[in-house]
Write a structure and sequence with these properties.
Elements lengths: L4 H16 L6 H4 L5 E8 L3 E2 L3 H11 L4 E4 L6 E2 L4 E8 H31 L6 E3 L9 H10 L13 E3 L1 H6 L3 H9 L8 E5 L2 H10 L3 E5 L3 H11 L4 E5 L7 H5 L5 E3 L2 H4 L6 E5 L2
Parallel strand pairs: 6-11, 7-8, 8-9, 9-10, 10-11
Antiparallel strand pairs: 1-5, 1-12, 2-4, 3-5
């Protein structure tokens, strides 16, 4: 997955505008405009790095004289104390960009690290880890990119990617069979249909409609195993709903194809990285 430059630039510019406004009352009044400094990013934990190019771009947009040496790249495993990058620029602009750069770098690295842990917990099974649409507004592509850096896969990016019938669609649309039949008559041949199921009766109905993907929502492991048997390879199976690091191994052992986890993006812990200014 490649992040378009215009997309990341737009996010960065809005973040800078939000933070700097028109004056930095500490840096602008304290530091001479022509003063330059060297600084560096250092990891303060073990994990997976993500967002280093985005972080560097923050300083590039602020300072056309900015230069950097990047030692660790997106997807690399880092350890506490690792030197990630060294860079040089106008002191005031390094200070102004510090928080925005770290916010993005720490958040994306946190997602990549959490994803890598979840992927590790699935080893030995066929299950893959996927994200969801439970992302922060305007940051979806950055967050989904971070999931791929951690070894995970992306679920749909938006509502146009897949016809996903969740419980409210089914309840409002007259049931699984009627909803899938109506969709089949209208959607294009490239669009897949995913049906969320809450019990084994709904699983059987979803199979009979020829759904491409069947989500097993908030099911316990015994029910999930029975559901996988019923589906019998006629559709991809996706486990979802409150899945944690503690439950991932047992869910993966049920034989599902995909485990989707909203927490990878909506409530991930920021990865600890510091920016230090050289004296």
């Amino acid at each position: 997955m490649i992040l378009p430059q215009f997309y990341t630039d737009d996010i960065i510019k809005r973040a800078i505008l939000e933070d700097i406004n028109y004056v930095d009352v500490a840096s602008d009044y304290l530091i001479p405009e022509d003063q330059r400094n060297e600084a560096y990013f250092v990891s303060k934990a073990d994990g997976v790095l993500c967002g280093i190019d985005v972080a560097m771009r923050v300083f590039e947009l602020l300072d056309d004289s900015f230069t950097a040496k990047v030692y660790m790249h997106d997807g690399d495993k880092v350890k506490k104390g690792d030197l990630i990058a060294e860079f040089s620029g106008k002191t005031t602009l390094l200070l102004k960009g510090e928080r925005t750069a770290l916010n993005l770098l720490q958040h994306m690295s946190g997602i990549a690290t959490a994803t890598a842990k979840a992927v590790k917990l699935c080893e030995g099974t066929k299950a893959s880890i996927a994200d969801t649409r439970k992302t922060l507004p305007s940051l979806r592509a950055l967050q989904k990119y971070a999931v791929t850096c951690g070894g995970g896969k992306n679920h749909r990016f938006n509502l146009s990617d897949c016809a996903m019938l969740k419980d409210n669609h089914i309840d409002a649309g007259g049931g699984i069979t009627g909803a899938v039949k109506k969709l089949r008559g209208k959607i294009g041949h490239t669009v897949k249909i995913e049906v969320e199921t809450r019990n084994l009766d709904e699983v059987k109905e979803a199979v009979s409609t020829g759904a491409d993907i069947i989500m097993l929502d908030n099911m316990d492991c015994d029910t999930m195993k029975k559901a996988v048997e019923i589906i019998g390879g006629k559709a991809l199976t996706e486990a979802s709903g409150g899945i944690t690091d503690e439950t991932i191994p047992s869910v993966a052992a049920c034989g599902v194809d995909i485990i989707s986890i909203g927490a990878l993006t909506h409530s991930v812990q920021a990865f600890d990285i510091s920016m230090k200014m050289k004296k």
